[in-house]
Amino acid sequence: MTLAKLIQDNPYVLDTRGNLNVEIESITLDSRERVSSGLFFCITGSRVDSHSFAPQAIQSGCIALMVEHFLEIDVPQIMVSKGRAAMARTAASFYGHPAKSLKLLGITGTKGKTTTSYLLKSICEKAGYACGLIGTIGNMIGKRMLEGTLTTPDPIDLHRTLRQMVDQGIQTVVIEVSAHAMDMHRLDGLEFEVGCFTNFSQDHLDYFHDMENYFHAKCMFFQHGMVRNAAVNADDQRRDEILQCIRESKLEEENRPQGKRPITHMLYGIANPSDVFARNIVHLMGGVGFHLHLSSEESIPVQLQLGGVFNVSNALAAASCALLMGIGAETIQEGLEAVEHVPGRMEVLPIHQPFSVILDYAHSPDSLENILTTARELSKKRVIVVFGCGGDRDHQKRPIMGEIAGRKADISILTSDNPRHEDPMEILRAIEEGIRRTDGAYEVIEHRKDAIRRALSIGAAGDVIVLAGKGHEKYQDIKGVKHPFDEKQMVDDLLQELNT
Questions:
Q1: Phi–psi pair at 458, nearest 5 degrees
Q2: Tell me: the pLDDT tens digits for 352-379?
Q3: 123-141: b or e for each residue (b if 16 or more CB lie within 10 Å)?
Q4: 276-284 and 144-146 beta bridge pairing
Q5: What is the structure's pLDDT at 47?
Q6: Burial 235-258 (b: 16+ CB within 10 A, else e)
Q7: Partners of 443 in the beta sheet?
Q8: HEC-encoded secondary structure of the chain
Q9: At a CB cut-off of 8 Å and minimum separation 6, what does 304 contact?
Q10: pLDDT tens sequence across 169-217
Q11: What angle do CA 267, 103, 186 make, to 5 degrees?
Q12: Which residues, including other chains, have CB under 8 Å from residue 42's CB and lie 6 or more apart?
């Protein structure tokens, strides 16, 4: 494809330099990547300005640049007003606009995105759709798992994956929509058949600095016509503001001369009046049962294989999205009940011990409180939690999580998570500040394997042990190196060690 054709519909192009008839065979963000006849995107970031890597990109095989200001380099250049947004549009064009052949379903919120996406994918498949998934755990084409690195990939990876999905017959794709992705315009130009808002609570303040910036990024998903239909959690404190974003988007679409159909929305919840809601919730170690009430006044019994009230809320979110797609009640029930587990999310490990071990990705205050509340409901004796906080991330949540653990667990074992470039003991001391405000018993064991060994060694009949923070991850990030660390396998190995 020629450079001229690649950018012909890009609304962010300001000016050009050089021969635009050159053939572009690849696009890249990485100046070190060896490419053939490539286009390199120069992006000004908060920490790094990749314009300075343009000479290296040319040595690596790039023959053209997309820039935010012209460079004194003798290759064709496209100057754009918004580098990230322009890159998203260019990536879509390069891969032949695969999203236009797909029904996109987006899930945003602080918690619940992954589980809701798995539940919704299952419903779609029961409805006869060939379904893909893009999210935190990885990307899926049908049942086949592909490697993923970000909750919402950068535009090049995203559109490459969507192209692959279209070529393999996928019709519907469920996408986890992160606040980072919205702020960085990774989804610019896409239209979602359904968008879902799960909830909002503290997280990612290392990037967004304050809660309002973080919430604004969530709101962006429901603005400017990106979403055609919306499912909104009626139980969340910020739901009225999300609904206001939807109303403003409706007005914007209605006032356009040839506007699209205004966005419609549906509320779901447990505690507040909703179109879709749950009643008669019963907790079991193997899941949770409830009656799902639909907007048509229809009620169906659901036996979810995932535990916890928060997963009832996730099921309602998925059901609401499915209803907005026109999927029927029986299919929704079948899809919800078919999900046996979501990797690293409230995952009860098959350990055959008199106590239980739950693996969960909880790494924010609300998610830790949710999993410990559920563990308390399931436990016949004590709740023991092993957790830490990630390095190079939001410092404010560390004492908050310590206080939650002190209130909710009988014994807390504070340990390392992904310390990254921070001193693990500094992180643990910050968590200790919070747990000391409570009467909760706790220990500090820096090395995570030793902490898990300790928890398993004191586990007794009826106890529930929660391993929080790592979830599906199979590594531990220490000083920029990802060391193998599979908690599922580690639990098996340590139990064998302790039993012998």
A1: -100, -5
A2: 999 999 999 998 999 999 999 999 988 9
A3: bbbbbebebbbbbbbebbb
A4: unpaired
A5: 82
A6: bbebbeebbebbeebbeebeeeee
A7: 413
A8: CEHHHHCCCCCCEEEEECCCCCECCEEECCCCCCCCCEEEECCECCCCEHHHHHHHHHHCCEEEEEECCCCCCCCCEEEECCHHHHHHHHHHHHCCCHHHHCEEEEEECCCCHHHHHHHHHHHHHHCCCCEEEECCCCEEECCEEECCCCCCCCHHHHHHHHHHHHHCCCCEEEEECCHHHHHCCCCCCCCECEEEECCCCCCCHHHHCCHHHHHHHHHHCCCCCCECEEEEECCCCCHHHHHHHHHHHHHHHHCCCCCCCCCEEEEEECCCCCCEEEEEEEEECCEEEEEEECCCCCEEEEEECCCCHHHHHHHHHHHHHHHHCCCCHHHHHHHHHHCCCECCECEECCCCCCCEEEEECCCCHHHHHHHHHHHHHHCCCCEEEEECCCCCCCCCHHHHHHHHHHHHCCEEEECCCCCECCCHHHHHHHHHHHHCCCCCEEEECCCHHHHHHHHHHHCCCCCEEEEECCCCCCEEEECCEEEECCHHHHHHHHHHHHHC
A9: 287, 288, 289, 290, 311, 312, 315, 336, 337, 339
A10: 999 999 999 888 888 999 999 999 999 999 987 676 677 678 888 888 8
A11: 85
A12: 49, 50, 51, 53, 54, 65, 66, 67, 68, 71, 83
- pTM for the predicted model, two decimal places: 0.89
pLDDT recorded at residue 59: 96
Q: How many residues does the chain have?
A: 500
